[in-house]
Amino acid sequence: MILSNGKEQTPIVIKKCCLKSAPKYAELIFHQDKKKYYLHIIVEVKERKIENTAEVMAIDLGIIHPMVCFDGKKVLIYNGGILNSKIRYRNKKLAEFQQKLSKCQKNSRKFKKLLRAKKRVLRRVNNQIRDVLEKYTSHLIGYCIKNGIGTIVLGNLRGIRNRARYKKVSNQKIHQWMFKRIARRIEEKAKFVGIEVKFIKENETSQNCLVCGSKNKSKNRNYECKSCDFRYHRDGVGAINMYKKYTGSLNLVVGLLACPTGVRYTSHLCCPIEWNIHPIGKTAENSSCQESSPFQGGESQY
Question: Which of 6, 41, 135, 166 could be disulfide-bonded to 269 (CB atoms 3.0-4.6 Å)?
Answer without folding.
Answer: 135
